[in-house]
Amino acid sequence: MTYSVAGLMLVSATSCKTEKPRSDRQPNVIVILADDLGFGDVSFYGSKTIHTPNIDSLARGGVAFTNAYASSSTSTPSRYALMTGMYPWRNDVKILPGDAPLVIPESQPTLPKMMRQAGYVTGAIGKWHLGMGAGNVNWNDTIRPGAKEIGFDYSCLIAATNDRVPTVYVENGSVVNLDPNDPIFVDYEKNFEGEPSAENNPDTLKMQWAHGHNNAIVNGIPRIGYMKGGKNARWVDEDMADYFVGKVKSFLRENKDRPFFLYYGLHEPHVPRAPHQRFEGSSGMGRRGDAIIEADWCVGQLIAELRELNLLDNTIIIFSSDNGPVLNDGYRDKAAEMAAQCGHKPAGGLRGGKYSLYDGGTHIPLCIYWKGEIKPAVSDAIVCQMDLFASLGDLVGADIPEGLDSRPMMPVFLGKEKNGREYIIIENQGKLGLRSGDYVFMPPYEGPKTNLTGNELGNLGEYGLFNLKKDPAQQHNLAKENPQLLDSLNKVFLDKSLGFYRPFVEEVTLK
Predict the structure, then answer these.
(1) What is the DSSP letter of 101?
(2) Using an 8 Å Cβ cutoff, are 243 and 270 in contact?
(3) 81: Cβ–Cβ under 8 A, 6 or more apart, which residues?
(4) Is the pTM of this model over 0.85?
């Protein structure tokens, strides 16, 4: 695959064990996870239209991966894989509504539990989307189970996504600024009497909906789901970045004298794209571009705070995205029109995006920065966010749970080894494929070619076999030209997915 990154360097092949940090203290670890940010949305990865200098500084100063993957092309499943080290399809994990219970069982091993057992204080700030509570959540009481029960000492989160109700911050299991005389009620089936909706009150909207976002109105923006009460607790979308940056800085200051693990979930550039007014027009590409500029600013604020606290030298910063990009995801913000006008390719020339089994659905930006410990490099090793679980456990000397899908690959993440994964099972809303070496194998799924967003889903209706190194846009299907390779990869797929897609147990036959 050809990339337009200036000065690409491939990591040389060496064999070594994970090296311990030079500091007397274990390194701090921060995972920054953007929301719906594409491979081509970052200027280091080739974007000529949106500039991300702070994210670029991490990529240039660390190891930047050109073959990094999320487990899934949607948010909840990929975050589940990151937190648990397990493929989400094993437990039928799908996109959650805003009032869903916690999808991770309290008894399940998790990344934050492991880090806490290794002596780290743990924090989760920002986008969550892994559910809260045990069902029929009472938003007016302490919400359990939640982030605390799966290993986080501190948390300040949004329950799901910024386009879903309830539109409130939840800090350590309690809604922030909740007035007990104005309790919160949430319903995803019907509206509450007297409450405005986008369908009935279109004249009150400051952002118009395109599809699926025509329920409760909060801050002039229509949402998914209905909500009543909690007026003092509702967020202002334009202030969300500043709010969470403040929480991140507070967490760093309060824990600067002990090792910490921080998960920082950016809400950008997920819809509704409503960046702070000071970013308006900063990208020249409308709301989505401005939201990416805001996300880059958030990264810069974190780096600056680490430097101010003299923590930057002993902190591992991991930056990535939860899945591929999407433009028209429910609001009329002209994201698609602006991208076309400016020649911007959010997926960086890859086919598909969010909701897609094509490579653009799960192929994401990922870079790892550790000042003084990592020599700047670009690696084409195949890696997955899911592998951070076992890899960080290996680095800090933790007991890694047995039976994980996560693999200990810290020498690869640190740029000390070249060879990454031999394969990874990729997933789009329960449909699986295989990335192995230069190739992607896709079973012949039936179904619509696109969804309401316009993104291609990967339902080919026939076998798909693509060489990503020669054909990153997946325009040339090799399935009929190379039946032996197709048969070989089909068998690997069936073995590694535990026969998950059972109609393909029989030997491949091509006519």
Answers:
(1) P
(2) no
(3) 70, 71, 72, 87, 88, 384, 385, 386, 405
(4) yes
